[in-house]
Specification:
This is DUF177 domain-containing protein. The protein is α+β, with helices and mostly antiparallel strands. It folds into 2 domains: 13-139, no CATH class; 153-186, no CATH class. Helices cover 19% and strands 31% of the residues. The protein is built from 3 helices and 7 strands. The strands form 2 sheets. The protein has a 5-stranded mixed sheet with strand order 2-3-4-5-6, with helices on one face. β3 and β4 (64-78) form a beta hairpin. The radius of gyration is 25 Å and the shape is elongated. The protein starts with 12 loop residues before the first strand and ends with a helix. The relative contact order is 0.17.
Length: 186
């Protein structure tokens, strides 16, 4: 493995110099059990049950490469409300363009910068495992939730004191109480 091995559990390097320049290189990456466990740990999720990246890497122009693939995964994450396991099936297309020379994005402001996140700098190797990990990370649900989970009202305070209600926590709740007190005093 390379220097990224602590954070990159799955590595599948293709040496660019060894790739055929007239036809696509097909790949079918399926991590094994220990790699799936390591990947789940790296992503901070409960489990990665299945993971597959199936696709091809095709030459584009004289020195660039285009990766087109389909990511398939089954992951388990804790529910954001109940912490119960939530199983999610992910099926996402993945596209990357590895360019030997990146376009010159001379934008005067960030708003003018193109948002093409599929372009990457081409090095000596293309790491299909890293592409798979990045695609899975981006495809994970941000807020996994069990279908019938509901957020209940919770009250936290010091012993012997009354907890603040949701109504009292609203920004103008204090003004309403002050208004009521002033009306009562007059």
């Amino acid at each position: 493995m390379n220097e990224l091995s602590d954070t990159q559990p799955v590595e599948h390097l293709l040496r660019v110099a060894d790739l055929p320049t007239r036809k696509p290189t097909h790949f079918d990456l399926r991590p094994n059990g220990p790699e799936l466990k390591s990947l789940a740990k790296a992503l901070g999720i409960t489990e990665v049950r299945k993971l597959r990246l199936l696709g091809r890497l095709s030459p584009q122009g004289k020195s660039d490469w285009r990766l087109e693939a389909m990511l398939g995964a089954t992951v388990v994450q804790p529910c954001i409300l109940t912490l119960a396991p939530v199983v999610t099936r992910i099926d996402e297309p993945v596209t990357r363009v590895f360019m030997s020379t990146l376009p010159d994005f001379e934008a005067e402001s960030i708003e003018e910068t193109p948002e093409d996140d599929s372009i990457e700098q081409l090095g000596n190797h293309i790491d299909i495992g890293l592409v798979m990990q990045e695609a899975l990370t981006l495809a994970l649900p941000l807020y996994p939730k069990v279908a019938d989970a509901k957020l209940e009202e919770s009250a936290f305070t010091e012993p012997g004191k009354q907890a603040m209600s949701d109504e009292e926590a609203r920004p103008f709740a204090g003004l309403a109480a002050l208004r009521d007190k002033l009306q009562k005093d007059s």
